[in-house]
Amino acid sequence: MRYLIITDLHSNLDALDAVFQAEAENYERVLCCGDVVGYGPSPNEVIERMIACEATVIRGNHDKVACGIDDTAWFNESAERAILWTRNELTASYQTFLRNLPAGPWVSSNHEFQLVHGSIIDEDQYLYDDGDAYDALKAATVPITFFGHTHLPCFFALNIHGDLISEFIDETTPQSRTTIRLEEGTRYLINPGSVGQPRDRDPRAGYALFDLDKRTVELKRVEYDIEAVQQKMERKGLPEYLIQRLAVGR
Ligand SMILES: [Fe+2]
Predict the structure, then answer these.
(1) pTM for the complete prediction?
(2) 126 CA distance to ligand 1 centroid (A)?
(3) Consecutive sets of 10 residues in the chain, 250 residues long: mean pLDDT of each?
(4) How far is the CA of 146 from the centre of ligand 1 (A)?
(5) Could you tell me the CATH number of the domain that includes residue 108?
(6) CA separation for the pair 15, 30 (Å, rounded)
(7) Count of domains observed in the chain
(8) Domain containing 209: what range?
(9) Is the Cβ–Cβ distance between 122 and 153 less than 8 Å?
(10) How far, in Å, is the centroid of ligand 1 from the Cα of 184?
(11) Edge-to-edge, what's the strand order for the sheet holding 106-107?
(12) Ligand 1 geometric centre to CA of 27 (Å)
């Protein structure tokens, strides 16, 4: 089975469609680690896509605020403005869709992998460093965990000897893809990077392809029409800071 792993779509339909088009023949199922909405201009359309492709989706912190499960206490000013606009824009049925999203971890039926938004221990925790990753990997009950929330493509691995390996994919490693070969006995935390608002200085949409049979995960990027999204955001009155950051990927 081949999976398309996506996270942090953030209402960016153009970026999402570019990913779907680039990989149309290369996966059978879609798995999403949350933050379907927030920041971007097309929340209803992005949810529509998730339903249409029968994606397995867990909730992110923006999804929780957009449907009223949580408040904006932890949001900065532009994130708050965008999520209040999103709340108003969402149809009643898509509000319900967000309210019904499960919290991570969502564990696959074969117990090979799981989805979380922030971390295994806490769905809202940001996983940036080796210490936090080590604690999370020690707590993992399945070999492979996909996560999001930081918008930074990276992976952490804890091998059978207790050694932690970590790698962030950024401008110092400018290749368009990175393949992780999954070793037996090693536990992994893998972030495919954000589809809709990358923050690693690469503005292209980030995602991963996971081949369970070949035991590989490819971290990949695809270009999309950023200007078209920026124009939509301007028309909807979304904050200038959010519009500008899409072009620089941070
Ligand atoms: Fe996010």
Answers:
(1) 0.96
(2) 10
(3) 98 98 97 98 98 98 97 95 98 98 97 97 94 93 97 94 84 67 96 97 96 96 97 98 97
(4) 14
(5) 3.60.21.10
(6) 15
(7) 1
(8) 2-248
(9) no
(10) 31
(11) 106-107, 113-115, 144-146, 187-191, 154-158, 164-168
(12) 23
